[in-house]
Hints:
376 residues, mainly beta, Thrombin, subunit H, six-stranded antiparallel β-barrel, 33% strand
Amino acid sequence: MDENTHRSSASDPQQPYGSGGYDRSGTAGGDAPYEYASASSGADAPSAYPPPPSYHPAEPVTPAPGMTVWPASPVPPPPDEAAPAHKARKSRSPIGLIAAVALVSALIGGGSAALIGRATTTTSAGTTTTKVINASSSSSGVAAVAKADSPSIVEITATSNSSEATGSGVIITSNGEIITNNHVISGATSIKITFTNGKTATAQVVGTDKNKDLALVKADNVSGLTAATLGDSSTVAVGDQVVAIGSPEGLTGTVTSGIISALNRDVTVSTDESQSGDGQGGGRWPFSSGGQNYNGSTGSNTTTYKALQTDAAVNPGNSGGALINMNGEIIGINSAMYSASSSSSSSGAGSIGLGFAIPINTVKSDLAGLRSGGTS
Length: 376
């Protein structure tokens, strides 16, 4: 080892301990480990340098010929620090998780998945309850309207001396008042009501208004019936979804749906009792609108009223039945429909999406007169 690598001069600032050098075995002068030179030869003479450290000093490093680097003394590691306490994870709300899953399901399913929402109710005691609503179930839409309103719609069979006609009606009171079309019961000698549960009752005419094609009948000896909720036809708009319930061709409780196609259509019907009945003898109730006759001629004795137009399928037998909004409210009484003629059937080829209903506000304004016997 050359003099640049191992120096013996005590004045060398890079020689840390004493004047004697040390070899790589850690001994001064090759004898005892870290033996230091004293300032005097006395045994009690104080040491010229402090005692050696408790750890092995770092050795010099020669990164290149002619250069020696003394590394810094090792620094003791800092005392162990206490590990930070883990924060408790907040538990996820199950309701939030349900809503998140429902949203993802709806997005993945392209809208076909059921959407889930929450309905919150606060009781008088201040407690809040939450229930899950499945929007694709029968709790909403056409199915819900049909379930709620079907018990309020009846089939009416009107028998005269020469024929029998079938139509529909809407229960408006629990004791058996029923609204229908005048042309359904006009000229009848007996009237039978068939309810959705299959029970039947006879009925009597209370009042009629042939100028508006309305009639009020009352079922005999009944009580506790489910009365329909009458809505407000002035709020109806074109494009509103609607449901029609009636008894086309004697098929009690038939449900169809569509939209409001137009408002305030002029509909002209006959007031001649010889043309009364709906589906009478396989016939179709004639009417005219927009200067065109449908289902035959209306004759010379006619009346005109404003009507709601719908594309919901209505057929002979639907007359007097209900046109209902999506809140389950009656907004019209179905009164006229066009069925394209068919050579193979005397009752026509069925609905082509051209139906009309008397607005329920017209019915409500006429109720007092009908209950007193009618205006005609």
